[in-house]
Amino acid sequence: MRITTVFFRHKLNGITSSVIFWLNKITYIAYIGFLSIMFTFFVSHIYIDSNIFVLAGNAKVQSDAKFTFANLKNIFPVFNDSSYIVRDSTKNEVITVSNERKSEHDIIDNINLDEAISVFSNKRKLEVTSTDTSSLERVNVDNIKLLNYSTLRNIDYQKLYDKTITLTKLSDKILLYNTHTSESYANSEKYKFGYTGTYRTTDAKYNMISVASELQKNLKEKKFNVIQDTTPHDYAIYTSAYVRSKLTVAEEIKSNGNFGISMDVHRDASGNLDFAPKVDINGVVVAQCMFVIGVGTEKNRNPYYEDNLALAMQIQLLAEKIYPGLFRPMYVRDYVYNQDLNKYSLLLEVGATGNTLEEAYLATRCISNLLDIIYKK
Q: What's the predicted TM-score (pTM) here?
């Protein structure tokens, strides 16, 4: 009887130890699963700003973080090119331009070059006025307007205007890319397409890849050396698009060296989805454009903000001479928008949700002409 009791006690101890062992295993597996779920949520919804965790959800908000998820594209394979509808770059497409488009281009291209260059050859003292509140400084620099939402005030606009910007087509390549790749426009008689979100589409024939491609085509026609990166950055998860486009720009600079100009091409959005800013240029209706310049914060100032702002100002002053009304007021903000990676980096908004692709395409023709003069001057 005593032997039997000892035997069963030994067995019971063995079973208890086994149960405890497996309970520990299950707890460990559950803990790992919980951490995996939390990490997935973290990279899907939050990016890290230099000062604070930011829950992003605005076309004008981005991460200028030192921290990036270096392998984000591998973690989320939906951001690979294979998940996006893009043109086959290995095929030599024959591009035809309709007579209507040629005629519109002829009108846009009809520029008094001497008058345009006088914007830079006859340097003058600018008339600068401003009204200031705690959240916004409204600035008039001659006939262009800036809305300075940043905490950086007392910018010396005369100094920026006086800067000599030297760019040549031979050595100063232009990089085009799209952080918010899927942004798109209103359907029109000529361009009808389906949306995969609110005024968004993953079809590259109708989103910002298409607009950047049109700009590239116009620039190449003028003998610019242009590189267009068609990597999608916002499909499926919009809020951390700037983290991914930062990797793209850094990789392009690593492969090609610094660019003469790096340009992130967007379309704007407002609470009114029918908002369609446009201007009539000698009978041709063109989408209005807008520059957004990121100066960074006091703790993390963008080292290139003066160069970027100087270039944007000079382009906009030139535009007011030859294409009055092409540009809406420039935005200046505390963010960086990847404009700290390359001297002369610009964020260009082409139209808004209510504009059409035709209007956006014609705006790129104007932009290419302006850059042609900037490079020649």
A: 0.76
Distance CA 242, CA 337 (A): 7
Q: Please, are residues 287 and 277 in contact by the beta-carbon 8 Å criterion?
A: yes
- Which amino acid belongs to residue 329? P
Cα 329 from chain centroid (whole Å) = 18
Q: Residue 14 burial (CB < 10 Å; 0-12/13-18/19+)?
A: exposed
DSSP string for 160-223: HHH------TTT--EEEE-TTTTBB----SS-----SBTTB-SBTTTBHHHHHHHHHHHHHHTT
Report which DSSP code applies to 221: H
Backbone angles phi, psi at 155, to 5 degrees: -70, 135
Residues 6+ positions from 363 with CB-CB distance below 8 Å: 286, 287, 288, 289, 326, 350, 351
CA distance 83 to 126: 49
Q: Are 362 and 284 in contact (CB under 8 A)?
A: yes
Judged by DSSP in three states, 256 sits in helix
pLDDT tens digits for 39-84? 655 544 444 443 332 333 334 444 444 434 444 433 333 333 333 4
Secondary structure (3-state) at 314 = helix
Look at the domain 77-376 and name its fold: Aminopeptidase (3.40.630)
| Cα–Cα distance, 74 to 71 (Å, whole number) | 5
Angstrom distance (rounded) from CA 271 to CA 260? 35
d(CA 284, CA 268) in angstroms, rounded, equals: 21
pLDDT digit string, tens, across residues 103-113: 999 999 999 88
Query: Domain-by-domain residue ranges, the chain?
Result: 2-68, 77-376
Q: Where are the beta strands (DSSP E) in 167-252?
A: 174-177, 226-228
User: Are the C-beta atoms of 178 and 266 separated by less than 8 Å?
Assistant: yes
The tokens describing 326, both together, are: 């092409």
**Vertex 364: Cα angle to 363 and 368 (nearest 5):** 120
Beta carbons within 10 angstroms of residue 102's beta carbon? 10
pLDDT one-digit tens code per residue, 16-46: 666 666 667 677 677 676 776 666 555 444 4
C-alpha to C-alpha distance for 333 and 328, rounded to whole angstroms: 16
